[in-house]
Amino acid sequence: MSEAVLLPGTARALELAARLVQSETRQPSLVAGVVRDGRLAWSTAVGESTGGRASPGPDLAYRIGSLTKTVTAVLVLQARDEGLLDLGDRLGKVLGSDAPFAGARLYDLLAHAAGLPAEPAGDWWERASGGDFRDLAGRVATQQPVLPPEQRHHYSNLAYGLLGRAVEQVRGGAWAKLVRERVLEPLGMTATTYAPSDPGERSARGYSVHPFSGRLLDEPSTDTGAMAPAGQLWSTVRDLARWSVFLLDGDDRVLSATSLSQMRTAARGSVDGLETVYGLGLSLHARPGGDRYGHGGSMPGFLAGLRVDPRQRAAAIALSNGTYGGTPVLPDTLLDVLGEHEPLLPEPWRPEPVVAGADEIAGEWYWGVVPALVRVQSGMVVLDMGRTGRSSRLVPAGEDRWRGLDTYFAGETLSVERDASGRVTSLRIATYALTRRPYEPATEPG
């Protein structure tokens, strides 16, 4: 993955943003990169304290913390796609009825909606050497859900430790081996590893910064054991650039396009809601220029952030070796800078292809007195109900039938109603009646 060249003004503004985070939040070293059109378009390194002779740069490995969860989620969805498990399964179906939190659904664990405790009982797992799953199960045996399931987002590291074990169970292999063989190797992410490689030379050492003296305090580099699926991995800006391209464009060798889309879809709520919105392994973020998705990460001595912006066809990554600071939110700033200085040029408009059955239903409709519009866009039929938020893309589902693909009407069937002459009179979806005129007398309003 080679670096392209951004305009000098863009590069300087990106450099400024990275340097401000490094200096204002006292990161021993910080590396960052911007991806556009499938390649690393810009990168920088600020600071010198890597714990050895290595200079910071796009090929130096840092611990990425909870960015690991995005990889674990891919493993779970791979297993689902191959019929090894179902996201509606209870954890006990996979791990046995005596497993901790056996009643939790796999889907809810992925979405942080199962109500599990944020952390496993015992010593803080991020700073303590972790044991095997038997040890983890013993430590959490007396813990109970802290919230009812499926009611609200409650971030849980423990949930991803359990998901990692579920994948091991259905695959019959160790999580680390599955990550390497089923995700990293197909994507060419050879610098992403379970443990640091040659600390101080090929990977940075982790530090905390004393609040008053400014001295660097060593942080441990732990093997988190059974909790590894929640935050163990190490990676580089260059490898995470490859990961961001996968999250944007997909790769059927690793995950189907349908499953990748599911990762990027809110599991509950909407992206513009007040609470944190999570898909399956990805956090979702509303921005003025369009929604973004990605993840942050933190482990003692390290911070990480990755954000993907589909509208810009871009992504940004930031890694540092300090325990506290602004690194996880830097990618959003970098994407804002990119959009301001070098906005993506729109694709030329091209005539739409013929979509069978679309011409008869295209045009203006009314839900009561609320205007709605059916049109063909990007080769698909779109039902746009404006400010109501009740909109969806539609795909054919039989004669005079269309199925909602996403958002409010996902999975719902739109039926085309005709009179005795065969003329289309109304559209009905989820009990709503759409007519050509407001509250058209010939059709019962819905």
How does this model look, in words?
- Residues 23-332 form the Beta-lactamase-related domain.
- The protein has 446 residues and is α+β, with helices and mostly antiparallel strands.
- The chain has two domains: 8-341, Beta-lactamase (3-Layer(aba) Sandwich), CATH 3.40.710; 358-435, Lipocalin (Beta Barrel), CATH 2.40.128.
- Helices cover 26% and strands 22% of the residues.
- It is built from twelve helices and 19 strands.
What is the gist of this entry?
By secondary structure, this protein is α+β, with helices and mostly antiparallel strands.
Main features:
446 residues; alpha+beta; Lipocalin; 2 domains; eight-stranded antiparallel beta barrel; seven-stranded antiparallel beta sheet; 12 helices; 19 strands; Beta-lactam/transpept-like; Beta-lactamase class C-like and penicillin binding proteins (PBPs) superfamily; AmpC-like; DUF7586
Give the beta-strand count: 19
Number of helices: 12
| CATH classification class of the largest domain | Alpha Beta
CATH architecture of the largest domain: 3-Layer(aba) Sandwich
**Helix content class:** 25-40%
- First and last CA, distance: 54 Å
Count of folded domains: 2
The CATH fourth-level homologous superfamily of the largest domain: DD-peptidase/beta-lactamase superfamily
Mean pLDDT: 93
Taking all Cα atoms into account, the compactness measure Rg is: 24 Å
Uncertain segments: none
Q: What fraction strand?
A: 15-25%
Strand arrangement, major sheet:
12-13-14-15-16-17-18-19
Helix and strand content put the structural class at alpha+beta
The rough form would be described as globular
The CATH topology label of the largest domain is: Beta-lactamase
Q: Major sheet, described briefly? A: 8 strands, antiparallel, barrel
